[in-house]
Amino acid sequence: MSEELFDLIIVGAGPAGLTACLYASRSLLKTLLLEKGPIGGQDLIENYPGFPGGISGYELIERIQKQLEDYEYQFLQEEVIDLQEVEEVKEVHLSSGKVLKAKAVILALGAKLRKLGVPGEREFTGRGVSYCAICDGPFFKGEEVAVIGGGNTALQEAIYLTKYVKKVYLIHRRETFRATSILQERVKKNPQIEIIVPSVIEEIKGSDKVEKIVYRNLKSNEKRELEVAGVFIFIGHEPETGWLKGKLEMDESGFIIVDREMRTSRPGIFACGDCVSKKFRQIINACGEGAVAALNAEEYIKNLEK
Ligand code: NAP
């Protein structure tokens, strides 16, 4: 495969990358899709048009994968560690040592979960500390748990967890939430959710597994302990773009800067989805950006051939 020249290499097979692949393969571009690991998925997406009652992230991904079965493209499960440009050819370097070549590249790298960075977080991950309510919620039947964060994910997952747990303490560092109003209303109306603001977690404690958390109220500076069996952390995402530093223009947080056509600062390199610098990270705009990136990549490739 290493001697082949692809028209397009897409890095990342989340909603943005898969949509880009759908458009590219329908345009008959010689396309390679790369993904380093299992693709995560949001528990329930209620605002993706066309799915009354919502659809899980996993199912949405499965459906796009199924849709892709009708088209031709290659897929490799490998990690990309470098991107180089040799004149107009893009060289995609894999952790296995392979180097793949393409006329254009789409980066749909997604973003990884942000960690709190408090004592006990790493130690108790998998033993009470979790980043996934759908995966771990059922283990906390009848228990009390804490959810950390004030965005859409934290509020949505807090509500979801009340299906299993006795009580959720929703702890957020500010008095106002950035989550959408409908979720804020649902949280406030839910008798199983107690909101603790403006507060931050200082430590997660336990012996074998999580037993309590120490949190501090940022207004009164008062420290308190709370007995919980689980701590669910949903404090946003960080891009995994360190390996591209100095090669592409990025914002101060490391998200890739693109224009409306999903063009990065380098010709023939496009980016889309959660790894790009933007205000709203929604699956619907990730998919839209994937489509735009693929259409512009196609145009770029055709112009090369002129
Ligand atoms: P987010 O919107 O970035 O929110 C992260 C939350 O964590 C914020 O409330 C933030 O507090 C807090 N936070 C960040 N760092 C923290 C720290 N070190 N300690 C304590 N708290 C910290 O992340 P998200 O909720 O995961 O959502 C990611 C994206 O997906 C967003 O664009 C969101 O709209 C989207 N999403 C949409 C839906 C939906 O539409 N239904 C569902 C899920 C996610 P501050 O507010 O003080 O900054």
Provide a quick synopsis of the model.
With 306 residues, this protein is an alpha/beta fold. The protein has helices spanning 15-26, 57-68, 133-136, 152-161, 181-189, 283-305; strands at 5-11, 31-34, 74-76, 80-86, 89-94, 99-107, 111-113, 129-130, 144-148, 167-171, 193-196, 199-206, 210-217, 223-227, 230-233, 237-239, 269-271.
Any overview of this molecule?
The protein has 2 domains: 176 residues, FAD/NAD(P)-binding domain (3-Layer(bba) Sandwich), CATH 3.50.50; 105 residues, FAD/NAD(P)-binding domain (3-Layer(bba) Sandwich), CATH 3.50.50. It has 306 residues and is of the alpha/beta class. The strands form 4 sheets. Strands 1, 2, 3, 4, 5, 6 and 17 form a 7-stranded mixed β-sheet that branches. Strands 8-15-9-10-11 form a 5-stranded parallel β-sheet. It has a 3-stranded antiparallel β-sheet with strand order 12-13-14, with no helix packed on it. It is elongated and about 65 Å long. It catalyses: [thioredoxin]-dithiol + NADP(+) = [thioredoxin]-disulfide + NADPH + H(+). Its EC number is 1.8.1.9. Its cofactor is FAD.
What's the topology here?
Blueprint: E1 5-11, H1 15-26, E2 31-34, H2 57-68, E3 74-76, E4 80-86, E5 89-94, E6 99-107, E7 111-113, E8 129-130, H3 133-136, E9 144-148, H4 152-161, E10 167-171, H5 181-189, E11 193-196, E12 199-206, E13 210-217, E14 223-227, E15 230-233, E16 237-239, E17 269-271, H6 283-305
Parallel strand pairs: 1-2, 1-6, 2-3, 6-17, 8-15, 9-10, 9-15, 10-11
Antiparallel strand pairs: 4-5, 5-6, 7-16, 12-13, 13-14
Bound molecules: NADP nicotinamide-adenine-dinucleotide phosphate.
Keywords: Disulfide bond, FAD, Flavoprotein, NADP, Oxidoreductase, Redox-active center
GO cellular component, one term: cytoplasm
InterPro entries: FAD/NAD-bd_sf, FAD/NAD-binding_dom, Ferredoxin-NADP_redctase_2, Pyr_nucl-diS_OxRdtase_2_AS, Thioredox_Rdtase
